[in-house]
Specification:
This protein is an alpha/beta fold and 295 residues long. 39% of the residues lie in helices and 13% in strands. It has helices at residues 21-30, 47-57, 77-82, 108-122, 124-137, 144-149, 157-166, 173-181, 196-204, 222-232, 246-258; strands spanning 2-3, 6-7, 35-36, 60-61, 64-69, 92-97, 209-212, 236-241, 262-266, 283-284. Helix 1 (21-30) runs parallel beside helix 2 and helix 7 (157-166) packs across helix 8.
């Protein structure tokens, strides 16, 4: 049995998305999504808005967050060449979901998780200041406060990219990433991140579960990747992601099931200027994490 009623990976103005939460919810609903998760980077600040918007549209809302972590394996250069990627992401992203939590209702376990997450969110501003300093040294001054004002929650590189476009330094956000602020490029600055194991522990302590986002980005062969995730206690892998081919989705799903793991699905929607539409992500229900039953 197949379904395409879920989209468990999306972003809003609370991190690096283009749209307010209410607009993201509306776009999801218009594409037939019935279970939706807002997974802004390193922040839960949009949960209350998202829960309210989803309820008004008759959708189920699953509280989520995308946690920026240290890589758990080095990229395989031969594998990167084989899949046509120049370099791997400088961080691994762990999706965390809290199906038992109801935003707006006091929950001590989730409050503990939020307290753990907060310093990692705060670490984004010093990093942004450092990136603005590097751009200044490269002849492209950007006011960090202008960048900060663009974010309702976690400030990130897409906010900086948009500022660079408006200042005339680049023609598009894609150019900003591919030339200046992408991983390993002249204005890139890493920030302090938790390990995957640390993030898994924090999420489990709040009765949540985890899934590795967009595995394609890390440059690690599927078998080695999934085995390592199992060792670290990660529950699932985001096999169905907009960047994945059908064959890669199938490969990830089979490897996850073989290792006693499940899969999740997400369009990784950031806004209409990045992709035409959210949702529309078919997957086999049999491999879906059981905590999403009833979705």
């Amino acid at each position: 049995m197949w379904t395409q009623s879920l989209d468990l990976h999306s972003h809003s103005l609370h991190s690096d998305g283009e749209h307010p939460v209410q607009d993201v919810a509306r776009l999801m609903h218009e594409e037939g999504v019935q279970t939706w998760s807002l997974t802004d980077h390193d922040t839960t600040s949009g949960w209350n808005e998202a829960a309210s918007a989803a309820a008004s549209l008759g959708m189920r809302f699953l509280p989520g967050v995308e946690i920026t972590c240290e890589p758990a394996l080095e990229p395989d250069q031969n594998h990167l060449a084989a899949i046509g990627r120049e370099r791997a992401s400088a961080s691994w992203h762990l999706l965390a979901y809290f199906p038992e939590h109801r935003p707006g209702i006091n929950d001590d376990t989730v409050a503990g998780f939020k307290a753990w997450l907060e310093p990692h969110q705060d670490g984004r501003l010093p990093r942004m200041k450092a990136m603005c300093q590097r751009l200044k040294e490269l002849g492209m001054p950007v006011d960090v406060e202008d960048v900060r004002r663009r974010a309702s929650g976690s400030v990130g590189r897409p906010h900086l990219a948009q500022a660079m476009v408006e200042l005339g330094y680049v023609s598009s956000k894609v150019e900003a990433f591919e030339t200046w602020i992408g991983d390993g490029l002249p204005a890139f600055v890493p920030h302090v991140k938790p390990t995957i194991a640390e993030a898994v522990e924090a999420v489990r302590s709040a009765n949540g579960f985890t899934s590795l986002a967009h595995p394609l980005y890390y440059g690690v062969p599927t078998k080695a990747l999934v085995e390592r995730l199992g060792q670290l206690g990660v529950d699932a892998v985001e096999a169905v992601h907009r960047s994945h081919t059908d064959s890669y989705r199938f490969e990830l799903m089979n490897e996850a099931v073989a290792n006693g793991m499940t899969i999740t699905v997400g369009s990784d929607f950031h806004g209409l200027s990045w992709q035409a539409r959210p949702g529309n992500m078919p997957l086999q229900v049999v491999a879906l994490d059981a905590r999403l039953n009833g979705a």
